[in-house]
DNA sequence: CGGTTGCTTGGAGTGCACTCCAGCGTTCTA
DNA sequence: TAGAACGCTGGAGTGCACTCCAAGCAACCG
C-alpha cells in the first residue's frame, strides 16, 4: 500500500488564505505562467524563482521555450508553503519538509514531528502575543484616561 | 497638571515576562552594571549598547569611570521594550515611541494611536496564527492516520 | 606589578528572506 | 515586421535586527 497525500486544498474547510485564489483552471488544463501565479498567490516572480532555487518547490514544468508552467498541484503546494510561512517557520525548515515529501512515504514520522513542533511553536507564539495584549491594553487604558484628564482640564 | 507615567511594572498584573527578573534592588540603590542587566533581561550587552545608540533608550547614567549604570526605571523601560518587540513591532517604531515619550505630555494622543495600531496588528496576527493551526491540525491528522495505517499493515 | 576580568568605542560583519539587475531570448499585438 | 511585454539566468544588493571585532582603559587579585 502507498498512501499519497494530495496536497490539495480540495473541497475541504481550509480557512481563508489571503487573496481569494478563486479562478483555478480544471485539472488537465492547469498550466499557469509565472505572472498568473504571482496574481494568484501574491508572491513576486522573484520569490517564486528563488523558492525553486533553494529547493522549496518541486521541479516545475517548462514550456517548449523553457518558461515555467505551474500546475494546480504546484499552487496547492504554494498555498501550504504560505501557511507554513505565516506560522513563522524558517524557510530552511520548509525546505527540509519539502525534501521529506520528495523522499517518499518512509519520512512520514519525521514530517509528523516537524509539523507537531511547528504547532507547538504556534501555540506558544499565540500565548506570547496574548501576554503582550495585556500590557498593551494597560498602556492604552492609561493614555485614554490621560487624554480624558487633559481634555477635562481644558473645560 | 502633569501626568507622569511611571513606566513601572509595579504591583500590577503584568503577566509573565520571560526570565523571572526577581532580584531588583530597592529604588535609590538601583545601580546595575551592563552584565547585571544582561542577566536580568536576557538581552546581550551588544544589544543593550545598540539600543542606546539608536535612541531606543533614555540616556543611561555612567559611573565615574564612564561605565553604564542602569536604574530600576531603565529596567522597566527594557521590560516594555521587550513586550513591544514580542508584538513584532519594528525597532524603528519603538524608537519613534521612545522619542514621543522623551518629547513630553503633548504626544499622548500619538502614543495612544501607535499602541492602538500595534494592538490591532497583534489581534490580526493571532487570527492569522489560528488560521495556520487549522491547516497544521489537518496535516498532522493526516500523518497520524497514515502512521496508524502503516503500522496496522505490518500486523 | 603582571594578569585576568569587565567595560568602553566606532565600525565592520552576519543571517535571513527576499529583491533587484543586466543582458538576453520569446511571444503577442498593431 | 516593429516594438512592447513577458520570461529566463546568475549574481549582486537590500533591510532588518542584531552580533562581533580590535584596541584600549579601569579595577581587583596574588
UniProtKB/TrEMBL annotation, chains A, B:
InterPro entries to which the protein is assigned, alphabetical: DNA-bd_dom_put_sf, MerR-type_HTH_dom, MerR_fam
Name of the protein in its database record: MerR family transcriptional regulator
Keyword annotations of the record: DNA-binding
CDD domains assigned: HTH_YyaN (cd01109)
Protein's organism: Streptomyces pimonensis
HTH merR-type domain boundaries: 31-100
Biased composition (Low complexity): 1-18
Signal peptide positions on this chain: none
Record region (Disordered): 1-29
Amino acid at each position: 500500500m502507498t498512501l499519497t497525500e494530495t496536497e490539495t486544498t480540495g473541497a475541504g474547510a481550509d480557512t481563508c488564505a489571503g487573496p481569494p485564489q478563486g479562478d483555478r483552471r480544471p485539472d488537465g488544463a492547469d498550466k499557469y505562467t509565472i505572472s498568473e501565479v504571482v496574481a494568484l498567490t501574491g508572491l513576486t516572480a522573484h520569490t517564486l524563482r528563488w523558492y525553486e532555487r533553494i529547493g522549496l518547490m518541486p521541479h516545475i514544468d517548462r514550456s517548449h521555450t523553457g518558461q515555467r508552467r505551474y500546475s494546480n498541484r504546484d499552487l496547492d503546494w504554494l498555498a501550504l508553503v504560505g501557511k507554513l510561512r505565516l506560522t513563522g517557520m524558517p524557510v530552511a525548515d520548509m525546505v527540509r519538509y519539502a525534501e521529506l515529501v520528495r523522499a517518499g512515504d518512509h519520512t512520514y514520522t519525521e514530517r509528523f514531528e516537524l509539523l507537531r513542533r511547528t504547532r507547538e511553536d504556534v501555540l506558544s507564539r499565540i500565548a506570547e502575543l496574548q501576554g503582550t495584549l495585556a500590557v498593551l491594553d494597560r498602556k492604552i487604558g492609561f493614555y485614554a484616561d490621560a487624554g480624558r484628564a487633559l481634555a477635562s482640564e481644558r473645560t
